[in-house]
Amino acid sequence: MRPPEQTHTAPSLPRDTKGGLIMSTMPVDVPTPRLALKTYTAEGRTIVECSGRLSIEGAPQLKREVKDLIARGRRIVLDLSGLTYMDSSGLGAIVGLYVSAKTASCELRLINLNKQVREMLRITNLLTMFEACGQYVMKIP
Q1: How far apart are CA 95 and CA 90, in angstroms?
Q2: DSSP letter at 134?
Q3: Are residues 112 and 136 in contact, defined by beta-carbon separation less than 8 angstroms?
Q4: DSSP secondary structure letters along 71-96
Q5: What is the residue-wise DSSP string for 108-121?
Q6: Could you read off the pLDDT tens digit of each residue along the chain, which spans 141 residues?
Q7: From the CA atom positions of the chain, what is the Rg in Å?
Q8: Alpha-helical runs (H) found in the chain
Q9: Which label site among 6, 90, 103, 131 has the fewest CB atoms less than 10 Å from its CB?
Q10: d(Cα 54, Cα 94) in Å, to the nearest integer?
Q11: For the chain, which domains are there?
């Protein structure tokens, strides 16, 4: 008598609602921190505190809200101290805001840059376009 054939089954892999494999090591139910913006006025400047992730999902929100401020104000400060992540879309949003501010004769400053943001500006040769105001503070001319 022959022994029964053994079949091997792969462990159950996580799948999305359409049956596709989930390719992330993060648990499915853990939300990623989205971009949050808090705007207030201090000492004649409009301050925009950015926190969370400045990525492809949040870049349009930043551009929309800050472009509205550029149209109404002359001195805007983006406080990036709360950013946990920034990708090329976030970088593109900041560069686009720079162009919009320059065109509108508006002063736009970046403050509290973390090491990742400074490094991204440096490796894309955009750091030279900014005037340094300190190790973690930058001014956009």
Answers
A1: 9
A2: S
A3: yes
A4: HH-SEEEEEEEEEEEE-HHHHHHHHH
A5: EEEES--HHHHHHH
A6: 666 655 544 455 555 566 654 544 445 555 557 899 999 998 889 999 999 999 999 999 999 999 999 998 889 999 999 999 999 999 999 999 989 999 999 988 888 888 888 888 889 887 766 554 434 455 554
A7: 22
A8: 59-72, 88-103, 115-123
A9: 6
A10: 10
A11: 36-140 (3.30.750.24)
**Residue that the structure tokens 């920034």 belong to:** 86
Structure tokens at 115: 């090491």
Strands 131-132 and 138-140: what pairing?
A: antiparallel
Of 64, 60, 124, give the one whose Cα is nearest residue 90: 60
The answer to whether 85 touches 54, Cβ cutoff 8 Å, is yes
Order across the sheet with 107-111: list the strands: 36-42, 45-54, 75-86, 107-111, 138-140, 131-132
Residue-level length of the chain: 141
User: What single DSSP character describes residue 31?
Assistant: P
Q: What is the pTM of this model?
A: 0.70
